[in-house]
Amino acid sequence: MAQSRTDPPRTGPSRTTLSRTVELVPVQRTLHGDALFSAPRTSDETLIAEIARGDAFELFCHRFQTDQLLVLRGAIDLVVLQNRQLRRIPLREDEATWVCIPPGVPHGAINRGRIPALLVNAVLRHGPSDPRDYEPHPVPPRFRSQWRRLAVA
User: Could you tell me how far CA 57 lies from the centroid of its own chain?
Assistant: First the structure.
């Protein structure tokens, strides 16, 4: 079992210095008696999201926040739009991995499971919250056939 670690304090990088690369980070865990603890993630806000079964053909794109997602129950295929391609990132409760989505990266989810997926989002803010960041946008027409292929893969 990996040792617990504490994330270093965030220094508040400007939006221009942030990476536009999605990062996968295995969850660091420690066992204390019968309790399994994961290492904390630095965040400005913590949200819980439930992803219903199906594929919504929706993308979100945040201007001034990094999403740090972890599946707590169920499984999803996170879909990110990078380098003019949709990329599928499978996330499952039994393979605990944080996925960090920087500002400006469009992303959505496909839940092909039998139950809704439950996720935690440890949000890092890089500027003021914008209500438009939480409005879904339809998958652009040129990517819809690729999205459909991902949904049945």
Answer: 16
In this structure, what token pair is assigned to residue 97?
A: 């991995």
φ/ψ (deg, to 5) at 132: -65, -20
The residue type at 105: V
Comparing CA positions, the residue from 61, 112, 63, 105 lying closest to residue 91 is: 112
Q: CA–CA separation, 23 vs 12, rounded Å?
A: 18
- Check residue 123 and report its DSSP letter: E
Distance CA 105, CA 136 (A): 13
Residue type (1 letter), 75: A
Band of the pLDDT at 34, cuts 50, 70, 90?
Answer: confident
CA atoms within 13 A on the CB side of 19: 6
pLDDT in tens, 119-150: 999 999 999 988 988 899 999 999 999 999 98
Helices (H), the chain: 144-152
